[in-house]
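ok, trying the design again with the full structure, not the truncated one.
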């Protein structure tokens, strides 16, 4: 059991929360929610023993083992599978003891090490690590690749797998669904349900929290409050409490106004002076209740498109790819007025490539793209934020897309999305990821599109903004194609699904629950395929197998070299980007005397963001090309 008793926690001079009382019992799963910067990650640091509370008590069993996800992964030569096994320290300790005992030819020590391995089920751990990696989207061949060969997002998956395999009494998961596609999120959700540890989860995924959590801890207004139930139940209870607080405040305000009116009317009259004095004392005793806290919110709303043709866009017998490498075989897809299409499939299957084809980008190898003359596309990609001009303001961006409108019209529009007043004139460089995402969505809304192409629009959005976007999409009258790992959004907004798998695009006949079962069956088939088949022909000799593997490596080497160069370029640019962001985080840079220096830094940031977007696109193309080649040499199950 973990107990918080009158706990106060600060970051520098800022109080995050105080007088916090809460308890967690063994095996519970807690959802930790609140606005960015409210103290969620600081509470995790406190639980890990990295920081201390200002006052109060944190009571936790001293022998509890804590597992959490590392935020950094060095470029290591060891395999992905071996790296994941490093997360199980008792296993590594037993392995080390066994190796040392064998070197010393110590029979008793060898037996003791084997007993220890058996006690922790160590002989099954490599297979368990493989299952974890498969669930998180790693193909069997990828599990033997060096950690250094994976991009940042895939390395975060390795860190997650390392935390999941660790023996733990308390599991701390800070945004575990980041860097995961829908397939991996569904698998992770099922895995955590069967994990015996007490879990505290920070997430912006409503369905993930609803499915897993029995309690919610909410940090707001420098207070930590505990709610029984999942996230949806927490929202209902909180809404009811807000209504009660509003009613109490209104009731007391009316009572104060009534007493004050009596005092003002009769204080000067001798016959009523005594009663007036009595009312005045009652008024003084009546504590003024503070107005209920109002959390800032922004309501997204799509205007009705001017025209919505019956058929907006069609891909006819279209094959997609990059250069000579095919990603998706020839298919046809028509988007009609009423279509709300969700694209399903694992990372790298070609969902974003299909979205690029719909947007008219150069990925069509054969076939034809037909678009109606009145089709107006609003395209949001994972790189939309990088395409914003860091040195320019929200107002400047509005003037670029709608030059005919007046400045006041632009300011009125931007004010609805949190960019009112002087904020409309500020350079966007210091904006948070969530603010930039909100601006990018606002710019799309301003264009009044009749076809939305949304590739992971909820990245960088907190739960409140996700809910706002969800409601806006439900009310949107145009057509839509969306890629998202937010299942609540897919369930609420889509009426059709298409599955992208093994280079093919096909309608998926079912809902997300059917897709979950499809994934479970596919994963089981993949695991079964890796097991030896007693009825299969005799395997190749070791020498023949080595020759085959060497030939495959030779054929794949050019693709890997291209990917490695692309990865190195992305890494170098990300390092430069972090250096610039560190310089922009210095408050002195915004002083008047540093105006020219700031302008230079912002210009560098803009150029760097554009270069990084191009480098990431090149890396994605190289990764998809390599994956397509690897599939040629992966035996069919």
């Amino acid at each position: 059991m973990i107990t918080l008793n009158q706990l106060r926690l600060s970051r520098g001079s800022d109080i995050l929360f105080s007088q916090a009382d809460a308890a967690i019992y063994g095996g519970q799963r807690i959802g930790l929610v609140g606005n960015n910067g409210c103290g969620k990650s600081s509470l995790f640091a406190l639980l890990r023993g990295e920081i201390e509370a200002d006052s109060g008590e944190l009571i936790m069993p001293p022998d509890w083992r804590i597992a959490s996800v590392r935020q950094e992964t060095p470029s290591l030569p060891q395999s992905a599978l071996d790296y994941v096994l490093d997360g199980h320290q008792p296993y590594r300790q037993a392995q080390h003891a066994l190796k040392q005992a064998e070197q010393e030819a110590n029979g008793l020590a060898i037996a003791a090490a084997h007993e220890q391995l058996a006690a922790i089920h160590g002989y099954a751990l490599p297979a368990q690590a493989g299952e974890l990696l498969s669930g998180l989207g790693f193909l069997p061949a990828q599990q033997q690749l060096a950690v250094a060969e994976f991009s940042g997002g895939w390395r975060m998956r390795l860190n997650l797998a390392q935390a999941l395999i660790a023996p733990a009494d308390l599991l701390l998961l800070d945004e575990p669904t980041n860097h995961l596609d829908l397939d991996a999120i569904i698998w992770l959700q099922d895995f955590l349900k069967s994990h015996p540890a007490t879990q505290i989860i920070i997430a912006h995924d409503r369905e993930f929290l609803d499915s897993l959590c029995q309690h919610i801890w909410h940090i707001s207004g420098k207070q930590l409050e505990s709610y029984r139930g999942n996230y949806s139940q927490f929202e209902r209870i909180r809404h009811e409490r807000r209504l009660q607080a509003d009613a109490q405040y209104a009731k007391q305000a009316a009572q104060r106004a009534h007493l004050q009116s009596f005092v003002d009317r009769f204080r000067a009259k001798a016959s009523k002076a005594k009663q007036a004095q009595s009312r005045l004392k009652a008024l003084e005793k009546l504590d003024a209740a503070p107005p209920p806290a109002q959390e800032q919110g922004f309501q997204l709303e799509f205007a009705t498109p001017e025209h919505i043709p019956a058929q907006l866009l069609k891909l006819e017998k279209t094959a997609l790819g990059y250069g000579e490498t095919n990603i998706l075989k020839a298919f046809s897809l028509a988007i009609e007025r009423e279509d709300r299409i969700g694209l399903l499939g694992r990372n790298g299957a070609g969902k974003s490539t299909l979205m690029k084809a719909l947007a008219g980008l150069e990925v069509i190898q054969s076939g034809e793209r037909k678009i109606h003359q009145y089709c107006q596309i609003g395209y949001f990609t994972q790189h939309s934020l990088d395409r914003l001009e860091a040195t320019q303001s929200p107002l400047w961006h509005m003037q670029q897309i709608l030059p005919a409108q007046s400045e006041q019209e632009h300011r009125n529009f931007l004010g609805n999305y949190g960019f009112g007043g002087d904020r409309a004139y500020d350079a966007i460089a210091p904006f948070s990821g969530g603010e930039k995402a909100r601006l990018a969505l606002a710019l799309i809304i301003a264009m009044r599109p009749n076809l939305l192409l949304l590739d992971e629009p909820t990245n960088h959005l907190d739960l409140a903004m996700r809910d706002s976007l969800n409601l806006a999409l439900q009310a949107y009258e145009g057509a839509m194609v969306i890629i998202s790992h937010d299942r609540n959004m897919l369930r609420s907004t889509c009426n059709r699904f298409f599955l992208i798998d093994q280079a093919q695009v096909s309608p998926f006949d079912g809902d997300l629950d059917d897709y979950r079962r499809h994934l479970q069956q596919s994963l089981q088939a993949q695991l079964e395929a890796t097991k030896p088949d007693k009825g299969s022909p005799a395997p190749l000799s070791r020498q023949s197998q080595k020759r085959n593997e060497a030939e495959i490596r030779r054929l794949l080497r050019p693709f890997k070299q291209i990917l490695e160069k692309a990865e190195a370029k992305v890494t170098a640019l990300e390092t430069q980007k972090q250096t610039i962001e560190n310089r922009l985080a210095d408050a002195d840079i915004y002083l008047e005397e540093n105006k020219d220096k700031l302008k230079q830094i912002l210009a560098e940031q803009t150029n760097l963001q554009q270069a990084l977007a191009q480098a990431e696109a090149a890396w994605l193309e190289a990764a998809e090309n390599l994956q397509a080649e690897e599939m040629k040499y992966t035996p069919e199950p």
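Keeping the full-length input from now on. The first helix runs from residue 40 to 47.
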